[in-house]
Design a protein that fits this description.
The protein is an alpha/beta fold. The longest helix has 95 residues. The two termini are 60 Å apart.
Length: 901
């Protein structure tokens, strides 16, 4: 990996500009290839994302970012030479390639410049041709074709006035040379601004390459037209290398003016007399900074003014900075995409985990709540029969006069009766009687239904609202659309039985038939020989006989029986549809669990690795490779070194990790993502950045260098030399605060121990080493951590953030003892397996005589074998604060190391 780690010395006796061109032309070649590879990996990431079932529309990837990324990794670097006149540009081109390829105009009386755009590219042999954009070569006879040439003939450079061919006028002159600089980048010489030649506009050129802009100066100031041209260039925010060529090598500009410019700002310069007129003009145009020693964005190359041509080799440094700027921007855009996609995957994992946990509970709740509703309604039906009989008697008694009056005034339908009420046929008499019966039945229906509704109305808030919402959520998540509303419909049938009793009293129902049969018997017993006259008295008589013949007990029994029948039928249908819904959801949950596993094990880790690579590339380009100091410690997979400074941070610790396989690569990448995504917190050690060293160990392996904040010592070393009780209790508070912050971010540390707690010079604690830290939704159930700090449930593979509470309980034991001596229960174990078995059986650290009662109770609560019985850290923190206030602020004598006075 080629990296710019500082300015290059271009003093006398150094290599020529073309040799430097060969070197800076190869600038960051490996990085460009790697950025291209990551661009191709992005397409793979899209396939992964679709496979995970996520919508691509949720990725915020603006089109201009995508175009910029593709252009950066797919474009070729190109030096674009502009200038005040052709003579200056020719001199720069000739100096850059080390050959007098272009004739230099020397006289101010020469005719107006008509040179076309020139493009210099690499080839095995020297050639020259006219070409149109898109690499279309024109068949045209050039003067250079007539024989060998060292300098390109003037007539080939110019656009002929008599040329009527638009293609000839629009073509550029393409020169192919076997030159080391051209192997790495093209060179483009743009026509003079006032020429108006085709292809002379800067906008047409820079979009298809990585532009390194050189502006050749021959005069001491810019003209108004030149300022206008520069203002257009400034809109693209690209840096420009301004180089002043010796005046005798270029033509005097005909529009060049002399004398001071009254509009130029002068008051902002600390030492104005030391600044050239060009400098002040470029400052006014915002190419150069007006403040001396002003700080700028370190990731951006800055425009440079070189007023002595012997310093032309500084173009090498400038070119490196420009290419580096483009790569940094591309790596930043790419990393932004990786991080956004990874965050979406992690959020999807949370949603999947919640679905897997909540759906079975919703099904259980729905089943229990519906059964409770069913039992309540059946209880009402059973105990209400006597009440209902009395209710019917009371209802008929209170409504009797009203019913008789309505019956007397009833206007029969489809029966013609004279005003005198003369007798009609038996058929019409039966119709009249039937209509009077229906009137009585309908009024009775309404009254009974209203009474029943009021008796079960309290069930609405107790059961219906939550149950319906729960069902809707379950049915919405079911993939079988045919089952989406079946269970809810059966629930509505149960509710109809309770709330819409009138639906059971339609004509033809049990009650209606019962009334009809009873009234028919009354009619059959009525003695008449001739059809009676249909008068008001007759209608009242018929209605009264019908009412008096009704048996309230039989009606109540019939209503309750029908109510129970409907309830049973609806309950059974509901249970059947719920079982069918459960079966459909079970299949969906199996797919969700498989997908959740893929997200945790495959998709998210692979994206995390891409994110680590793109961020590490950016950090490397910006800040260079950190220098390793002396070794501070080592673990199973990495070594920690001292690092004096990096990226403006000092001092630093450098953790060098060589992942042995893809799993460890992925774990490290996820750790890096979680840590970099966390907001800064005073109780967490900062991670400054990362660099991937592809030549670690002499090129035999690849290492990830994580650059972190370096503190004074860890807690293990602090306890070893001794800490006062007040300090130890404050450390406990700091650790709880740090763990609480991680939990609020949805992360579980899983490896809280003495050596993962760092102390600053004031002995304030910070948590470090998030190697096992993961969101709950991304945990695969793997057994991780340090044996003596591991909660029993870790061995089952099913655990949550309470494992950190357990680990803190063990850590708090050490803090209260003030030593690093192992607890007796753990010291006696000869192996990890024996230790784990003892912990699962309930083995815990012993109580020492010096322990405060409240401290011991807190330890025991934290390392409780039942995770649900462990206290929340939000409860632990105020308890710790109370203990600290009581033990450390109210004592009368000095504290010894063991905490006693």
């Amino acid at each position: 990996m080629v990296v710019v780690e500082g300015p290059v010395n271009y003093g006398a006796g150094e290599s020529s500009i073309e040799e430097e061109g060969e070197r800076f032309g190869g600038l960051l070649e490996v990085d460009i290839i790697r950025a291209s590879a990551m661009g191709m990996e992005w397409e793979h990431g899209m396939d992964v994302f679709e496979e995970a079932g996520c919508s691509l529309s949720c990725i915020s990837f603006p089109r201009h970012e995508e175009e910029y990324l593709q252009a950066t990794v797919g474009s070729f670097p190109c030096i674009m030479i502009l200038g005040q006149n052709c003579g200056a540009k020719c001199h720069v081109l000739n100096s850059l390639l080390g050959e007098k390829l272009l004739p230099v105009i020397r006289s101010s009386n020469e005719k107006k410049c008509k040179r076309r755009r020139l493009k210099f590219t690499h080839g095995k042999r020297t050639s020259i041709s006219l070409a149109l954009p898109g690499q279309y070569v024109l068949v045209h006879h050039l003067a250079a074709h007539q024989g060998k040439w060292d300098t390109i003939p003037e007539e080939d450079l110019e656009i002929q006035d008599d040329s009527q061919d638009p293609a000839h006028r629009a073509a550029h002159l393409e020169v192919t040379l076997h030159h080391p600089l051209l192997q790495e980048m093209d060179i483009l010489v743009l026509p003079c601004h006032e020429t108006g030649a085709e292809g002379g506009k800067f906008d047409d050129c820079w979009r298809h390459s990585l532009p390194i802009i050189v502006y050749a100066l021959s005069e001491d100031r810019f003209t108004a037209s030149e300022e206008s041209e520069l203002q257009e260039m400034r809109q693209h925010s690209l840096p420009v290398f301004f180089i002043k060529v010796p005046k005798h090598l270029s033509v005097l500009h005909p529009d060049c003016h002399s004398g001071p410019d009254k509009d130029l700002p002068v008051k902002n310069f600390k030492s104005e007399k030391e600044k050239s007129y060009l400098y002040r003009q470029l400052t006014k145009l915002d190419f150069l900074s007006s403040s001396i020693g002003g700080q700028s964005n370190c990731s951006k190359a800055q425009s440079t003014l070189v007023e002595h041509f012997e310093k032309f080799r500084q173009l090498g440094i400038f070119a490196k900075q420009v290419v580096q700027m483009h790569l940094v921007d591309a790596a930043t855009v790419l990393n932004g995409v990786h991080c956004r996609c990874l965050d979406i995957f992690i959020n999807q994992a949370f949603d999947m985990q919640r679905d897997l946990q909540i759906t079975p509970k919703r099904l259980e709740y729905t089943r229990d709540k519906e059964n409770e509703l069913f039992q309540s309604l059946m209880s009402i039906a059973n105990r209400k029969q006597e009440e209902m009989r009395d209710m019917i008697v009371d209802t008929l008694s209170s409504m009797k006069e009203e019913l008789l009056e309505e019956a007397a005034n009833l206007q029969f339908k489809d029966i013609i009766i004279s005003e005198s009420g003369e007798t009609v046929g038996n058929k019409d008499i039966k119709c009249c009687i039937k209509q009077i019966q229906e009137l009585i039945i309908s009024r009775l229906n309404q009254a009974v239904a209203n009474k029943l509704i009021s008796s079960v109305d309290y069930l609405r808030e107790s059961f219906v609202g939550t149950l319906e919402r729960c069902l809707k959520s379950l049915e919405k998540s079911n993939q079988d659309s045919a089952m989406n509303n079946a269970t809810s419909n059966h629930l509505k049938q149960i509710l109809n039985a309770a709330y819409h009793v009138e639906v059971t009293f339609h004509s033809g129902s049990t009650v209606s038939r019962l009334l009809w049969e009873q009234i028919k018997q009354i009619i059959h017993r009525m003695p008449w020989v001739h059809p009676p006259a249909v008068t008001i008295e007759w209608k009242r008589k018929i209605a009264q006989d019908a009412i008096e013949s009704l048996c309230a007990s039989k009606l109540a029994k019939s209503i309750c029986s029908q109510f129970r029948t409907r309830l049973n039928s609806s309950h059974e249908a509901f249970a059947a549809s719920l079982r069918q819904l459960e079966t459909g959801l079970s299949g969906r949950l199996e797919k969700t669990e498989d997908l959740w596993l893929k997200v945790r094990k495959d998709h998210a880790p692979r994206l995390a690795r891409l994110s680590l690579e793109s961020r590490s590339l950016r950090d490397l380009l910006l800040h260079g490779k950190p220098k390793l100091g002396r070794e501070l410690g080592r673990g199973q997979y990495g070594v920690v070194y001292m690092c004096d400074s990096w990226a403006g941070h000092s001092p630093c610790a450098l953790k060098s990790v060589v992942p042995p396989d893809d799993k460890h690569w992925n774990d490290l990448a996820l750790e890096f993502h979680y840590t970099r995504s966390l907001p800064r917190h005073e109780r967490l050690a900062d991670l400054h950045g990362s660099v991937i060293d592809y030549s670690y160990g002499g090129g035999s392996s690849i290492a990830v260098l994580l650059i972190m904040e370096r503190l004074h010592r860890d807690l293990y070393a602090g306890l070893k030399v001794g800490l006062k009780l007040e300090v130890r209790l404050q450390i406990a508070l700091d650790v709880v605060e740090g763990i609480r912050f991680l939990h609020r971010q949805g992360l579980v540390h899983r490896d809280i121990k003495l050596k993962n707690v760092l102390l600053d010079k004031q002995n304030r604690a910070k948590i470090t080493d998030l190697g096992f830290c993961k969101p709950e939704a991304m945990m695969s159930g793997s057994i991780v951590g340090t044996p003596i700090h591991m909660a029993p449930e870790l061995f089952s593979g099913k655990y949550d953030n309470s494992v950190d509470v357990y680990a803190f309980g063990i850590l708090f034991w050490y803090l209260c003892t003030g030593t690093i001596k192992l607890p007796e229960a753990f010291e006696k174990c000869s192996s990890k397996d024996q230790l784990w078995n003892n912990v699962k059986k309930g083995a815990r650290p012993e109580r020492l005589p010096t322990f405060d009662e409240e401290c011991w109770q807190l330890m025991e609560a934290c390392w409780n074998g039942d995770p649900s019985q462990r206290p929340l850290l939000g409860i632990v923190q105020p308890i710790l604060q109370s203990i600290m206030d009581r033990l450390c602020k109210s004592h009368s004598g000095p504290l010894r190391k063991d905490g006693s006075t």
